[in-house]
Amino acid sequence: MQKGFARPGYFFIDPNGIIREKFFEAKYRERLTGNSIISKLFPELGQEVTETVEAPHLQLVLEQSDPISVPGTRITLVAEVRLPPDVHVYAPGTQSYKPIKLVIDTIPQLELKPAVYPQPKTLYLPAIKEKVPVFDGTFRISQDVKVASSSEFWGSLGKDGKIFTITGKLDYQACDKAICYLPTSVPVKWQLQVFPLDRARAPVDIRHK
Asked: Among the four residues 22, 39, 55, 113, which has the most C-beta atoms within 10 Å?
């Protein structure tokens, strides 16, 4: 049925005409939003701040690429972590410590893609002669969310759409040069309004003959 269909996608071309990035999806009904692409290429431009949370030993800024979506699109949720000087948290894969982890609760109509973490730094702990991967300063954890594209879901939205509250938590253990504090969990929340696709036919005068 979809043989010969054009696949929706994006190219990022620099001022010299060189393709630097490309974003294409294997499934015809799944596509990134334009804002989501911008958020991946230029994080400082492509996100809308939804909440700032003061948590133990860090500040958490919650962002999202799009507040509004339609079936089949992918948006990006972001948790920007801001740590004070000389404070660090442990990166995923750390042994014997509590690594930082973004956990988003399951919603049947939304498909969660794997969370993306930045490249960690290596910290040497001279007291125990051990090297561990950590994050410090300000860094971002992002996670793409795909809105369902089934016809049953389209039909359930109604003309005014639905608002989905996306909840979860950020688990972490903060440490400074002298103390490793108790593991902490901070709740996170975003809202996404999903509208049905516009399936009305184009006016007769502009249809292809």
From this structure: 39
